[in-house]
User: Fold these one by one.
Assistant:
Number 1:
Amino acid sequence: MVTKALKGKEVELGFVQIPVKNRAELLGQNRMPFTTKVNGVPAKVDKYGRLWSDFLKSKYAVGTEVTIRRNNGSFEIDTVEPFLKSTSVEVKPIETVPLELSLPQTKICPKEPELKPTNIKLEATEIGSVKPYFQANSAWIFNENVIQTKVIENDSIDLIVTSPPYNVDIKYNSHNDQISYEGYLEFSRKWMSRCYEWLKNDGRFCLNIPLDKNKNGQQSVGADLTTIAKKIGFKYHSTIVWNEGNISRRTAWGSWMRASAPFVIAPVELIVILYKETWKKNSGSKISDINRDDFMNWTNGLWTFQGESKKRTGHPAPFPLELPHRCIKLFSYVGDVILDPFSGSGTTLVAAVLDNRKAIGIDVDLEYCKLAKKRLTKEAHILNAKLAQSSDLIE
Ligand SMILES: C[S@@+](CC[C@H](N)C(=O)[O-])C[C@H]1O[C@@H](n2cnc3c(N)ncnc32)[C@H](O)[C@@H]1O
């Protein structure tokens, strides 16, 4: 068995350099290069004695001491001490509760982030009387109306990922999702103006909206909201088309097999990518933690993955974790502040915490805030025991 500490390039690219002095022990009579396995995952030893495998990509933090064992022609790699990094947050919580985050190893950032204090003001004295519904370590949930809330300071947010109500008559607890189209556009203008104020100059905005609307009058929702965002001052970067693949739900054909009035419906949604002033990101830790394959795949603006189940989350219109996860990894640095002003069941918050960012959610409905808290506890591995006594600041 050989023990060594992992270096930056090894962590980033997904290999372990087998030290020359240990080659006889680990490689035996094998002539390099050769294929093998690491912990059951296909791997390769190249001609320089580097053991490559997807298993190793961004799995450990830099400096982690690992043991390398040879076992019947394949390899087993393990940590000497599990190197679990808890998310550190520089902003002071409303109530100081020493909570820990237990992050799954695959999510660990390859480099130790230098988390700098953000200029977000979340101390009780600085946000007046507004208390979060919930706060633990690096996540905040506010049971507030996005149009009126005073909880977020201007120029404080790195990335907004959100899916607003679509005005398609979803039965939300506290929001009327069937108003006139003009009323809906005005509502959109109001909440997007708030988001614009809250973003830093190099802040980004990932807006998940429908391409269009077919029931109760057809409307080009995607185009209309993008135009409003640009009038507010947002700059346009690009649009990702999310193919939900839910063709089976189709029932409206219009005039079946006749040209008189057929309906064309695209089973896709949009994620419009906007920003405030500059696309080039200057603030934050400067630490990206996206791997090569994900970067290559996700910068192709056609994303295909399934939607989320209402039943599983208990919310009438959730998006899947994959959506905010991709946006967060692509468009933010480790330690950045991520906001979802329509946080619902807390999907963006869960993704942000798992991805080692700070998460702020706002939702007008208390029941959905409760759901989000539950999901953060369960899915983002915020440790339950201490949380239970500390979190319900409003309940
Ligand atoms: C499409 S859902 C968001 C779902 C979320 N992405 C998830 O994965 O669970 C929209 C949410 O906006 C909330 N909402 C509607 N109007 C609001 C307002 N004025 N301020 C804050 N939240 C609002 C609703 O309660 C609902 O939970």
Number 2:
Amino acid sequence: MRRWLTPGGLVCLAVVLWGLTSVSAHNVPQMRQVEGWYRNGPTATALATLQIPRGAPALAGGTTGGPVSNGLGPIRDFLEGRRLFERETFGGNGRTCETCHSETTGTVSPEDAQARFRKNRRDPLFVHDGSDDDDGDGFGDGRHFTRMKSEATVLMRIPLHSNVTVKNDPAARVVTIARGIPTTLNTPALDKVLMLDGRQETLEDQALGAITDHAQATRPVQRRELEQIAAFQKLAPRFFTSFALELFSLGGPAPRLPLGRTDSEKRGRRFFEDLPPDFSVTPPNFKVGACAACHSGPLLNQTNQFLPLPVPPGSRFQTVLVSEFSTLRNPAKARTFVFHNQVNDVLDGNQDGIIEITSTDPGHALITGEADDIANGTFNQGNAFKISPLRGIRKTGPYFHDNSAKTLEDVAEHYRQFFLIVSDAPDDDPDQGPVIVLTDQDKKDIVAFLKLLE
Ligand code: HEC
Ligand code: HEC
């Protein structure tokens, strides 16, 4: 019965995903040294030398590195942080942080992009990585804007882990992947994992990357400025979906799940309760807690103890098959990534330490250099992404790392298909169907509850 929980269920799931990602073994192509990945910026070398020490205290006193002693220091820093976030272009292409992280939603939707295009075709949203990559060289052409207007995705240049090469382009050390803009609501103050693939360690590193890549800065960036931007993002009310969340960031009580008023909202809540499946009924109800298994904790962005996979509660990366489905829909947009030195290379019958993944976006695996978690059933690397926080979710569409779900209804339909696959019976038990089949009513209930999350 408890298919996810049985070894057979895990193997079944592993085999399905194996098939979806089409993995195979091959010889090791020659590895190359990392090449610079800031092709467009004249200041690249200067900026690349700027290192932010890990764990540097926010609001540290500029070049001296000491704490700000003057009582007005934090206020001045906050105001300067606001100016930098909203108005500073660093001598680049005209973009500021706010170009992509709007005040109200922390992101940009296709509707926003279309409205901005109607108002001003020269809006810096559309320059550089906001424009189409017509010739496939990995850079926007600066002239066509179809992708931004229809999907609101940005061309991200992602450095490859030293274990990873691209099959048809073995010299490549960077790949360009179109990704949606995750909201800056709640994340800066409350989410330790930064970027959809978790590749940045601190807000300061993140801001430096954005200024260099998205804004194409031509003047040096001071460490102090990065700290001021970080401080502003952690404190200003515009970066929180509710007062309760802002209080929580300052040490107040953790926000609870809304209770729901209508029957539909209350039924939707059942999917988000930290509970195991209900075995007191026949057949057991596996829908109870089905979303909470990954969307638990104050921000609904971590796994709980009921996720039927061998990952500890509180883990932050999983795949919900977004890249897998997208690869099936758009095979031409997928690339084959070759992962070398894989200790778990056991499923393809050729244990040469090489695993290939064909995917539109392998996510976290490009950063960890490990794709082999399908064998151990943890699903927290290959095609895995940061588990999205869900507070304020009704305002921040489109959804998923590629903006492929335009509405919460699309998200619910995505999860209907996801659960049909992951909760299906093992192959040796073909008479039994999947144990989590979301009905139209379930999908409505889930959407009704998601809209309550503040
Ligand atoms: C061209 C649009 C663009 C600009 C300009 C931009 N960002 Fe972003 N931002 C993105 C995208 C796209 C991502 C996610 C990329 C990824 O995960 O690969 C992101 C991610 C982030 C994240 C992490 C969010 C999360 O959920 O992990 C933060 C914080 C952030 N940006 C802050 C900033 C700051 C501060 C600036 C200005 C210094 C800035 N951004 C400028 C598009 C932009
Ligand atoms: C196995 C873990 C897991 C389960 C179970 C799960 N999610 Fe997710 N959820 C994720 C991950 C990981 C992402 C990010 C996926 C991506 O972008 O590729 C995500 C993304 C989302 C998003 C989009 C957020 C955004 O800002 O783009 C919504 C909404 C969501 N989940 C709702 C749900 C609902 C509703 C359920 C139950 C029906 C559910 N999730 C079950 C892991 C999970």
Number 3:
Amino acid sequence: MDLARTIKYEEELDQQFAERIASEPGGEGIWDCIQCGTCSAICPVSIYMDKTPRRIIGLIRAGFKDEVLSSISPWICTSCYSCTVDCPAKIKITDIMFVVKRMAMQEKSYRRFVIPDIEEEFVKMVRKNGRLTESKMGIKVARKSGIGNLLSMVPLAWKLMRHDRLKLFHTERMTNIDELRTILEAMETGPRVTLPAKPSVVPTGHHQEVTA
Ligand code: SF4
Ligand code: SF4
């Protein structure tokens, strides 16, 4: 695994990035990481990631925002919580993966592949109808991933339809969608408790070296 870029000056890094992550729920412990690698060793899917969990934490602290937000690792994370349970510094790594995904979606800086597409459509659909219609989500995701993909799903869709397992023109909807919208609105616009972030341990004038 290699770094996407080598920096020459500290200004090339985003010095506020770690503080932003640390101010999000779950991110507050990020400065306690001792880079022991337990999270990467325990993670069942780290072999499929482009950056191990330990490296994601190290890159966040060092200010490599672009590399972290474009990494596929948070999207590969299955939220099994093994890393969080075993971390000797009690860092909520799983929550940090969620924070990174949220930021990447807000800034539209995530790498385009099927998992973010699924999550994007899932959120849109649940926001709109309160429930998920799998057939429609499948079609939307397949369309995003190319016409070839969409066509390759036709035989399976036909089989499912014949056995009444797929309803193309049916949309699942919550009865009281307004209640869900009120909850979502309150979450997004209501008051937030921000925990104080610990000061950066990266001394000014230096950058932290992060290896795989
Ligand atoms: S297990 Fe915890 S302390 Fe060790 S590298 Fe991972 S996040 Fe850091
Ligand atoms: S929660 Fe995610 S990062 Fe942590 S061990 Fe599980 S899959 Fe890996």
Number 4:
Amino acid sequence: MRGDVHIHSKYSPDSKLEPDQIVKTAKSKGLDFIAISDHNRFIEHKLDFLLINGEEVSSADGHVLALFIDGEIPSGLSQEETVDAIHDKNGIAICAHPFRSVNGIGAKFRNVYDALETKNGRCKLECNTKGQNLAAELKRPITAGSDSHFYGEIGRVYMEVDASDAESLRKGILSGSARTRGNDLTSLGQLRLYVKLGKDYSARGFKKI
Ligand SMILES: [Zn+2]
Ligand SMILES: [Zn+2]
């Protein structure tokens, strides 16, 4: 199955995407599953699609992606506490875009995660490669997600997992059998994105997420 497990909907302060339109777009891109992972917000979406409950948590150290959770994970905790909170909600904890300069955990990384997001649609090749190398060195499972905040980004980056439902998907990810696919962000793509994000950031009153 193919899926994109890092998508932001209108329940994130920096996205306007409607959950039902996200699903429609994912289907049109040939995806079999997705996770809507809003910033610091847990919502159990009821839509006709294989939807993993997700949240992207702003830990004190950087962003942590929570998948398969059954409740909200608080923001502002250390990465270790965040991972524990995710496990308490029966989820799996993923270090999101570990080496992205914006909101990545980077040098503070601790080896406490179930998996590392080694392909993020808003990271350039160098940034994703660093994550891949770290996951390989630590023998940790990997995931991929577009980090979409616009419909056009959905499925640009995705993962392939041998699975047929949510439970086998979870097992597949944890067993390290996921393959990451899609294109890293180009320099031009990054420039365009930063211009767009700069506008949003000033419109939000320079509030970091
Ligand atoms: Zn993030
Ligand atoms: Zn994100």
